[in-house]
Design goal:
The protein is an alpha+beta fold. It is built from 35 helices and 96 strands.
Length: 1881
Amino acid sequence: MCSIPGLPTPGSQVTVLITRVNLNPICALVELWGNFDQERQHAYQQMRRGIQIPRQSFCESEGNPGDLCLAHLNVTWHRARIISRHGQLYNVFLIDEGRAHVATNSTLAWGQNDCFLLPPEVEFCVLANVSPLSHENKWTPTASEFLESLCGKTVNGMVQDVLMPDRTVLLYIPIVNKHMCEVGFARKLPSDTFKQLVLSSLNLPKSQVASTEALPPTVSHKQPDAGRELEKFQQYFYPELLTDSIETVEVTEVINPQRIFCKLSIFSQELKKLSEHIHDYYEGRSAFCKATQLASGAPCAARGSDGKWYRSVLQQDIGSDSAVEVLHVDYGKTDFVHVGDIRPLAAKFFRMPVVTYVCSLHGIEDKGLGWTVDEIKYLKSVLLHKTVIAKFEYHNLSEGINCVTLYGDDNVNINKLFGVKERCLLESERPPPRVKEESFATDIHNSVPPLTTPHSPSATETVLNEHLFQVGSTLEVKVSCIESPAKFWCQMAQEGTSLQILMQEMQHRYASSSPQQIDEDICVALHHDNGMWYRARIVENDQSPHVEVRFLDYGQTRRVSLQDLRPLDPVFRRLKTQAFQCFLQNLNTPTSPVPAEWSDAASSEFQKFVDSTADSNVGLKCTVHAVMRDNQGLVVNMVDIETPVQSACKLLVQKGVKAPAPPLSSAPPDTENFSLHNIEVGGKEKVWITSAKSVSHFYGQLERNSGVIDKLTKDLQHFCHQPLQSTNCPQSLETVCLAKYTDNQWYRGQIKATHPTLQVHFVDYGDTVAVGQSDILPCPVEAGSLMSVPVQAVPFGLFGVPEDVSQEVNRWFEKHATDLSFTITAVAKDSGGKLLVELYDGTTHVNEKVREKLKEARPGKEITFVQSPSLSSKLSTTKLSLPESVQMPTSQDVRRTVIMHSTTAMCFASPQRKVGQSTPQQSLLDNTPEMKPMVEHGGQMCSFSKLTDLPSRPLKPGLVTEVYVSHCNSPSSFFIQLTKDEDDIFSLVEKLNGSPSFCDAPPVDLNELQLGDLVNAEYPEDSSWYRAVVRRKPGNGTVHVEFIDFGNEATIPSLKVKQLDKQFIEYPRLSIHCVLGRITNANNKEIWDEDVTMMFKKATTTENAEKKLACTFMKETGSVWEVSLEDQGIVLAHSLVEASRTVRADVSQLSCSGENPIPLLYKKPCISQNQALDVYASSIVGPNYFWCQHANSEELYRISRIVQEFVDSALQDPVPMDTLSPRSPCLALFAEDNQWYRARIIRKTSDLFTVLFVDYGNESEVDLKAIRSVPPLLLESAPQAFLCSLAGVEHPEGAWDNNAVDGFYQLVVDKPLKVTVQNMYNNLESLTPQYQVKVECEEHVINDLMRSYWHCSDSHVHSKTECADELFSSDVTVSNETLNLSGYKCLTQETTPKLNSTEVPMMDISPSTTQCSGDNLAVRTICYDGLAGVSSSGSNVPSESVPKLENLPTRSIKPGWVADVYVSQCNSPSSFFVQLVEDEKYLFSLVERLNSDQSDGVARKNVANPQPGDLVNSEFPDDHSWYRAVILGTNGEDKVNVQYIDFGNEASVSPLKVCRLDAQFLEHPRFSIHCSLSGLADTKDKGLEQEISCQVKKVANADSARKLECKFIKETGSTWEVCLDKNIVLADSLYLGCSAGESTHLDQQSPSSGSLPSQMERSHREHTTLLQFWKPDMFLGQTLDVYASSIVGPGYFWCQYANSEELAEISKVCQLIGNSEQKDTVLMTTLSSGSLCLALFAEDEQWYRAQIVSKTDVISVVFVDYGNESETDLKSLKSVPLQLLEFPPQAFLCSLAEFENSEGSWDDNALDGFYELLADKPLKVTVQKMDNNNKLPVPQYQVKVECEKLIVNDFMKNCWRSSPTESQPEEAANHCSWQLAESDD
């Protein structure tokens, strides 16, 4: 070995484990990081374990470049070397990982001296002697994929050389090099040449290449992924960017997130001019001095691959190579250019500085794994060539890179957007984790500290985020602390769970913590009365041993000892402070934002009011009227607290304890005083609309307040023009200020954004605009009287109008509403404080006008109040909150997103009114039929339905299906929902909340309600409506209901209970009441321990409340089903039995500070089917029983460290014997190494326990003294080892021979393995799941190698396929529940997936599953509801089991619907098939799955006896791909005739190519639609029908990807009558306009009989579309070869295409039709300007295509293929045949470009000269502009004309008079004539 530690000797043979691969984008080197000394792995493990206890943390000033230290990354310490330091930021090199990392001093520490003795664990290598074969010198995608696959593999190679001081190993790997050269990835380079290439890439001169034996060790590795950085040469000037500067930049190149080039946009024009100058300077100067002596890094000018010249930097020396790499410095792009295209850069081009900077996204890291292609591709889609806002955080000097934060549209933080999506944020940048949906074991509210006398808080900066509410918003709250009505605290009701979880985690964290120094006011404080820790703020510190603190999440104050304070961990800062301070609005002065001085009686009454609501379980609502900050900068809210029937403010007035009015001068100036100005629901007001953002959000001022507004405006101008003590306004969000508007007047404002621009909301007008720094002023104390005036802009929204309307409608509303006066009628108020109104302009109802606009914008479509899917990026944050966080999958399909959002958007808030008063809204809307209550035929109100009126569910014992647990009381009472009912539930909820007739129906009469009545009830948590049944009537105007589709209950006011419409009685109850079976004998109790119930709830839910469980229905008793639940094969009943025993143990030692114990189970490992994992075999018993341990051992080290620290702390005594049972987790002592490990009890005897060490897999017998209880922290980490067996070998099918164990052991022991999970089942012996896996080791599949040890038994050998055959061929009774719900009415089409609407579901491609349970077989098919059909396999299934066409979902197409389509198959105009364009991606997905080898998991099965109508999977002969098809019949040639249902074409195929169609493919509707062309029913002329057929077929065949617009007229049977795009086919009886994209030959025996007279005479015509020729395919900039066919002058001449083949064919057809004897006289009345025809040209008696120019006594026509005009009579005209419409006109009208008639005129000689130049000469014309000709209905093209190398436009300038006069000067005419004569010569 080499004398340098860790480095191998050059020439030595080595075995290397490749840990990382990087393809250098600059020099195409393959960079590897490898472990050369795997035998010392144990030493490195010990070292890693030792450094987890650092010697000392860094102080602020410690650490210099070159120092060795420890860096904390991903909860683990790593050895590191400091590279550079910038303030608090350090660039460090991770020694054992070979990569750089940015750290802070808080994440660095000094290590023990001996921890740096070992050399680096991995060394930097370069794959030797290979270079890319491509001429771009870059690796191809295939080569890149191969090279990146080397990561994790162990290879044998030779050390070719070691380059110092970089410690770069040139590693030659023969097997890799040979493969790459054989397949054409790379070329082989001589070793000396390759070494020089590496040296040049490292920028090392040869003199520095020394022997490796004389140099000391170093770890100064280069940054692997950054490549060679852009150096800043002296010749180029780079302006320095200041830290925290903000610039608008354009991203010109994206290499990876840590190397992005950003160009300052402010210099875009200068750079553009510079680029043009450089290009003009160097282009065409072939003899210019070439750059032959330039070296790498030198500036130059280079011609890029696009032909343009750029300022560049050489990336390699100019040598013998013909091409070198350069970097274009102004764009950040690398390019390979020819040496001859490089020039020295002229001095004048250095003057412009380089303003394109190489940047790195701040807060993003690659975690040492590099960047994937998908990550970079996504980042490019977000950034490349986009203009964004960049904040330059700091400059990394060592790497020459600027760290930036980029902001996109709407100030979206692109760094976080990318980091969250790709999970690559730094620890400090990561968003808070999602809180788990679990209950806190104790009622925190009951254990909060008692009230104490408040003290003035000390001035401190707000560290935790506080709630900032929109003024006017309404919140559901709990009052947590009351000092008086002028000072109390509220909590958000819906965030209670988050607070409970926070409290639980804090108790774990601080239970055993020791006192520490407190450096800030925010801390954690211990409450001695209950022993719990709370987040707190120090509000008074009198330098005594005790301080006054306020508990931030509750509001109470407490005096605590300094010994009971702890610093607040950053992880607990993420949740906002849960208690926000409030004071009641003073009704004496409702506009004054100043707390009143309330009496003790008022405080007592307010306390009673709050307590009474808590006792009666009535929710409180808090309306925010003003938001301000106190003198300490803390947020204070002026509010009113309300119940559904009472207001606290009004109650205190009624009790006579109202507060006195405060002095006006005491009003704080920084206050926004919101007010609705006493606008009552139903009241009318005159308003002036000041700002209109949309129909759902606009602002207005009340006309009655005009005097107040005028005075306020005048006072503000006077105040702002006075000298102020301070003009520096604090620029924080929501700060109230004075701001200058665009009219230079001052107004009240509020800051809404601070970067990239300062945005101010003008509160009295509603506008939000960007202002300058000098245009805002603070609100001083003396401005209190001005700020106390209520906000004058009231927010409005149009009632009954959807929020999501088109921009056109919003712009129309803004234009016609802003700055105008209207009358409003207030209908309702939403939760955000906005009034929903009916708007009137005189007698014009604006709401109705907007609805009409919506209908105009969507003709033929029914307007529904559903948000558009295009807003999915915004909808993703809006979740439908079902009752009690319903356990519903958070599916990502678009349809469900729309449903969830529309549910919240459509349910308008009910109007607020006093009890006993009539609702003005009802009288306003009485004329709307759907607003009336349901009425029976007899006119009486319908009676309430009962639960028994709902359809019953046909559930049968033995049924196995997948379910969610939607609500859980205990294992003896919980509710489930079938997963296949998911769409029904969403559809039902959408309908209940989607129609105003349901949302705004009148409340029911409480006296009429009876127990058991079905009603429509509002759930208080989300204010949405659901079906419910009345359970109790507690009184006090409330009703206790159960939500029948979910199972949870609530007590709600009777105002929130309404009549349930009859249509909702058609659905069965969608939740099923259950009890957990198989546990009665074990427990025999109905009351469960709270811990067991909590464990059951955790087992049935996840963080996202979407866990699917397998449910077996066992027995029904009354309305309750006894069921068995399984989670991935684990029966939950078994877990509960063990848990019920475990909780009897004394676990007080495991709980902290009195909290309830956590259920003693380890977290489940996150392992799923088909997941691939890198592992080692940690315990090997045999091929069917071995344990695998994750290769990434960082988590294992962390667990081991915690275990040892916990045991060493001596806090735990031995556990009592009777508390231990099988499955109990524990800590156990392993006798062989005397170390403690996590374990689980397997079984116990009298005095010994058999334990399983869960992180390794081995077992051991221990006594009670060697067992300790496990701390709760260790339960949160999943076991690090999992039980496995080899997949593909089953015990019933055979057995292993005697040598199998030894052979298997030798194959896998101590080797890195990759396992792929293929199945999972429960191992009863170890009480743990066991995974069947495929094992790969060193490119070998162990499963295949072990087959030689496997012997099949002869008695019973069946494959999986045969097992499936037996299942389906056996006489299995499939229940209705398996197929669908047949016991109640089928759902309407609205619940079927609509593939033709905007609500397109993301197709569920999960295959159907088949499950055998004992002797009972049940087929479990997961499919869309409403689909009939059974998943079938095997060859003996009877034909009636084969699915039919009618089993597919039907489409919901309505007459008049218009969509884009493709024509997929055309038989005739009356029979063709179309596919919807929007179905394209689903159709591709379907075909891909049908042709996938894994499409059904088994081999395709043939249909034994195919019958007509059977739905099958059939191979198409032309492309040998498989498609869905329907059997049409059989023929005598032993063939089966099929039609491919998704395309419409047919074929005859062999019966061997007809296979069963799996049930998973029945979830899609038929993708082709059978159509006929509208209007063909009246066609009597067969010749004309043939013509149309020809056109339709050519449209279909010419371009199959052509999109056509299709209008669906009516449906007859299974065929739709349609109209296609007017530019393709328009069928209107016989009046047709056709065109096609290809030419067609006319059948001489059957000329077209379709004539214009017969078409025009029809009186019942619906369309009047003129016949049109196919439009010429011309575009700007196009150059054409032509002849001038008709010349009038330079401003009017016709050009004809030089290629005359098409013209000859047209002429042939024209003569054939024109000279035919068929009578085809055109009627004069049918002709008009623009009509097409055939016309006889009198001079040569030939027929030509023509177009009518004018019609008087004679008819003027223009011959469209030539351009000349002629006058003719009616007899010389014939109708143009359809065939001739295919061809575009062969001539087009032109004029010379650059000559405008308005700017001059041609002289007298211009025409003759122009004619002589063009006549009978080949020309080239270039189209430069297109105009419409006033005389003819054809376009006119302005062209540049070239003739015989002469630019005609330039030549004719001599004949142009720019300033026309009455007489042309003679010398000008002579000059023009001389020029023309000279040209003739």
